[in-house]
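Reviewer 2 asked us to include a model.

Predict the structure of this chain.
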Amino acid sequence: MPAKHNTISELALELGLAMGEMKNRLRQKIQAKINEYDPDLSFELIEIMGLLSRNDGINQQEIGIKVSKDKSSITYLINSLVKREFVQRIENKNDRRNKQIYLTDKGKQIVETVYPWALELYEKAAGDFSENEIKNALLLVKKMTTNLE
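Predicted model (structure tokens):
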């Protein structure tokens, strides 16, 4: 076992791994529920629409950063959303090369349907933790993320 000074880094590693595992399990459960609703919808498409429901009108680059996808993957996903009429690209009036992405009414309906399912799973994941415990955990993870910048 390494010296005691590695304890913090080892705990941080375990925390990171545990968060990754939780995200994967939530993703699998959300995808299973989505498949019941519409087998042609993917978690990635829902993730982008959910992001747009909170930040409508951001550009593709910002979406890629927030969902950790490269430029070509985001282009493919957004093209798919446009084709299904869930989102639309609108030129930025100050920079015509910069297209902002907006949810359509059809896309908003999908989010309104799926969002409660996701919240239900997150509530299950939260179990009997108090609101304060969740807030403290969130603060911890945000601080750790900031430390990496």
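The chain is about 70% helix and 10% strand. The longest strand covers residues 87-91. We have added this to the supplementary material.
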